[in-house]
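Review this:
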Amino acid sequence: TKVQELPNGDIVFSGHSASFDGDITLNFGDFDLSLFKLNSNGTIVWEQNYGGQQSEIGIDLLINQEGHIFIAGNTQSLSYDVSKNAGFSDAWVLEINASNGGIIWEATHGSEFSDYATSLKMGANNQLYLMGTTNAPMFHGEQSNGNDDAWLAQVNSPESINHLALFGGDGFES
C-alpha cells in the first residue's frame, strides 16, 4: 500500500483488493488495483477499483506538482480497464483524475513473458520513469543477461512507453 497527499490536503492510497462489499464498490475479477481518496477528516471521498478479469496489484503511487495521480502496478488481464497485455503479466501505468477517480489514460509495458513494475518516479519537467523486472530472454530488442533482469522505461505519453535499458547478470535483479 502506498500513501500520498494531494495539494489540497486530501489523502490517496493504493493497494489491491479481492472484495466487492463494504467500502469496495466493484471488483472486476480476482485482485483489482484499488485507490481511495480521503478528505482531511479521514472520510472516504471516493473509492475506485481498476483492472480486468485476472489479477492487478498496485506497486507505486505518486502525485505530480499539478495534483495528477499516477499509479504503477502489474496486470495479468486483457479486459475491462486493461487495453493491452503482451504476455502473462505486464507492468501497468495509469493516470487518474483526482476529482473523481476516473482513468485519464492507462498503458502497459511488457513481453510475452512475466514483466513486473517495481517503482514509478517523476523526473524533471514531470517526466515519468517506470522501473521493473522481466524473465524474458529478449526484452524490447535487448538480450537478457540471466534469470530476472531489471529494466527502465520512460513514459512519454499515453500509449507511449519508451524502453530505455535492460540490466543484470546471470542471477536475479530488481
Observations:
- The two ends are 19 Å apart (CA to CA).
